[in-house]
Amino acid sequence: MIKLTKSKDAPAVLTSDDAKNSMTTIKANAENGNLKATDFESKIYDGEGVKSLLKKDQNDKCAYCEVTLAGDYGVVEHYRPKTKWKDIKGNEGLGYYWLAYDWDNLLCSCDICNNAANKGYLFPLSNPNKRGDTNEEQPLLINPYKEDPGDSIEFHEHIAVHKNKKGEVTIEVFDLNGKKKDKKGEPRRRDLVECRKNIWGQAKYLFDLLTEQSQDTQQAIDTVRELFGKDENMFAGMIRYQKRW
Ligand SMILES: [Zn+2]
Questions:
Q1: Domain count for the chain
Q2: All residues with CB under 5 Å from ion ligand 1
Q3: Between vectors from CA 9 to CA 105 and to CA 98, what angle results, nearest 5°?
Q4: What is the pLDDT of residues 160-188, one digit of tens each?
Q5: Which residues, in sequence order, are bridge partners of residue 122?
Q6: Which of 11, 146, 171, 190 has a CA-to-CA distance to 17 between 20 and 30 Å?
Q7: What percent of the chain has pLDDT over 90?
Q8: Is the torsion defined by CA of 185, 187, 191, 193 positive or negative?
Q9: Assigned domain for 194 exists
Q10: Is residue 1 part of a domain?
Q11: What phi, psi does 179 have (nearest 5°)?
Q12: Distance in Å, CA 39 to ligand 1 centroid
């Protein structure tokens, strides 16, 4: 995960008359206790230009785990879940329905980060008594558009290590170290961890080689960062927040 910058202008579909009409229905149904998942229209929140602009802003990578989303991969994901929220203690409630078409609340993620085994409806807070007050809430999931993930997560080799509670919950929810098992007892995210390990192996090889040859550690670090830590590189965060440096 690396810090991201979102394009300022929201795609027009999110502020269209269709979006306004749909939101009127959503709010009315939410107030009457009749809100249904089908009230949210994917042709609006995933409408023309939304996913493509998010993917451009994210260098075609998942906002959370940094795997590549080249081609047609990736889903438009709501940071604050629209239909309902859950926390890690099992509490749940009505979602942040009013943010369903809010540009500020949208990211693009891979299917696996987004699915029910990982983020799903989860949106834990460190101050649950402020739930719903988005100015006061302190989410326990990193939003890479709002903060530098390196404040909460560092890497020891290819393993993500938390620096605070938010980092701990984020690693757990997105299963960034591949700890969750499927029904057969196999790790669900083995591919993610293997892929990160491979890239770390390449970076480490070059780092060790350069350090050995030049005796200039800083130059070696700079070279490795330049080659592996660019915005468009998979797992650039792993290189940037590497503890050994
Ligand atoms: Zn992901």
A1: 1
A2: 62, 64-65, 110, 113
A3: 30
A4: 999 999 999 999 999 999 999 988 998 88
A5: 86
A6: 146
A7: 89
A8: negative
A9: no
A10: no
A11: -90, -25
A12: 26
In this structure, the dihedral spanned by the alpha carbons of residues 193, 195, 199 and 200, taken in order and rounded to 10 degrees, is 10
Residue 103 lies in domain: 12-139
Ligand 1 centroid to residue 91 C-alpha, Å: 24
| 65 CA distance to ligand 1 middle (Å) | 4
| Predicted local distance difference test score (pLDDT) of residue 153 | 98
User: Is residue 174 a part of any domain in this protein?
Assistant: no
- Spatial separation of the C-alpha atoms in residues 79 and 86, rounded to whole Å: 13
With respect to residue 128, please indicate whether it lies within any of the assigned structural domains: yes
> What is the rounded distance in angstroms from the CA atom of residue 101 to the CA atom of residue 106?
8
CA 12 to CA 17: how far, in whole Å? 10
pLDDT in single tens digits along all 245 residues of the chain: 999 999 999 999 999 999 999 999 999 999 999 999 999 999 999 999 999 999 999 999 999 999 999 888 999 999 999 999 999 999 999 999 999 999 999 999 999 999 988 999 999 999 999 999 999 999 999 999 999 999 999 999 999 999 999 999 999 999 999 999 988 998 889 899 999 999 999 999 999 999 888 878 899 999 999 999 999 999 999 999 999 77
